[in-house]
Write a structure and sequence with these properties.
Structural class of chain A: mainly alpha
CATH superfamily of the largest domain in chain B: P-loop containing nucleotide triphosphate hydrolases
Order of helices and strands of chain A: HHHHHHHHHH
Number of strands of chain A: 0
Number of domains of chain B: 2
Radius of gyration of chain B: 20 Å
Strand content of chain B: 15-25%
CATH architecture of the largest domain in chain B: 3-Layer(aba) Sandwich
Strand order of the largest sheet of chain B: 6-7-8-3-9-10
Number of strands of chain B: 10
Largest sheet of chain A: none
Helix content of chain A: over 70%
Strand content of chain A: under 5%
CATH topology of the largest domain in chain B: Rossmann fold
Number of helices of chain B: 10
Order of helices and strands of chain B: EEEHEEHEHHHEHEHEEHHH
Oligomer: heterodimer
Distance between the termini of chain B: 46 Å
Structural class of chain B: alpha/beta
CATH class of the largest domain in chain B: Alpha Beta
Chain lengths: 250, 281
Amino acid sequence: MLNKVMIGRYYSIGSLIHEMNPLAKIICVLLFIIMSFLTFDLRFNIILGLLLILMLFNTKVPLNIYLKTILSIKWLLIFILIINIIINNSLQITFITMLRLIYVVLYTSILTLTTPPTEITYGLEKLFLPLRLIGIPVNKMALSISLALRFIPTIIDQGNKIIKSQASRGIDYYNSNLKGKLLAIKALIIPMFILSFKKADDLADAMEVRLYNIDNKRTNFRQNKWGFYDTFIVLMHLGLFILIMKEVVL
Amino acid sequence: MEVKFNDVYYIYNEKTPLAKMVLGNINTTFKEGTISGIIGKSGSGKTTLIELINALLLPTKGSVEVGSKVISKTRKIKNINNLRYKIGLVFQIPEEQFFCQTVKEEIEFGMKYFKKTVKNIEKHILDALLMVGLDATYLNRNPFTLSSGEMRKVAIASILAFNPKVIILDEPTIGLDNQSKKNLIKIIKLLKTRYKKTIIIVSNDTDLLLQIAEHIILLDKGKIIYDGNKYEVFKQDLEKYGLKKPKIIEFEQLVLEKKHIKIGYRDDINDLMKDVYRHVK
């Protein structure tokens, strides 16, 4: 079950998108999300789709992983379809609403699949840097995000181990009926919480013994340089963004 | 119950650029009523091998025969619980194996959910606890608050309670003190001699394996390097594979063979010392 969770997974492979500056990728994601939520125009949605396909192919991540991501939101898509039918929306609006969601999910998965969690934190830290001027503790926020992201694979790993342990003693999540599945999930939640808190405590102790001080200025092991490709991709998104904004405002 | 591997391969993330062969060309048999040991450094595929026996993983190629059941990717196993009921697997880190709120619930889980009619569950729970050296006072305790040695014992008890025919122990001595280790050895020997269980132990504690196992498999990078009698395997150059020789074998090779003292192999250091003393005298 948990092996199928693609959210937050990093796919380690060399590609142009992998090598992009995380800040550039985050800016592109934000622009893309705003763009896809602003327009109901089918032409722009086709252009956004083409941009998405271009980015997808450049990541070199197998397409079945993206397909899995879409399948993981199938119930949400069905729900949107039903709601749109109930409120009597036109076919085009229903289609574009569903398409938007697929676009956003796929584009954000490009970010998470091609950027390790620590790099995402780096990008967010750089993006929110101007907020320091008004006294917002950007470094503390970045640390919280990086710790939260760091725990996603740990929790998934933990869940898998408990599922295996349950399976070896009579309740196999994959081969059970609904009652068995519910029982397996019920037995999964409490130990996952207990062990995650324990691991968080251990991590806090480990940071403390290594004299970690949140207020110190921190440097990065990997110096992410802004290259030509970053500028090119961001400008491409920005150009499309201006075009859509012009169309929407006017 | 015999466990047989027929040309088994296991590949993680198959058909993706991240594909990695964890096990390859595995052909071996764990005979009924014997104790076998699996050794190899971290990442050599030991845990994957035992998870294949329990059908927690399915082989990418080849098949695993457990008694009359065949585990393979192409043949779906009917009623997988019937197979797992016969195999008790104690995981490497017991803490990660628990999911119940009390020791009692943890031990009775297998008996309850394998849907076999087990009469007198309470007695089985207590017997299993006593067998591993714990008592009834532990029944209502939270397994997460126990020490690592006690956790290990509860994990073993939770498997012994439903009386499986094959018992697999993944690194059973980690976190155990000397006395608990001795008790564990006693339990394992008892399970073999009195209850005729097939026991598979994954461990790099070669001293322990020399004492209790008969058959040893050495894995390296997912391949079987040596498979045979423990003396034959432990005589080999284990350092090459990141492992230490049992102290007794080392003593025999470094001291006795050089002094041309021939007394044969001993499993226990005390027996060896007595025989050396007798020989010198």
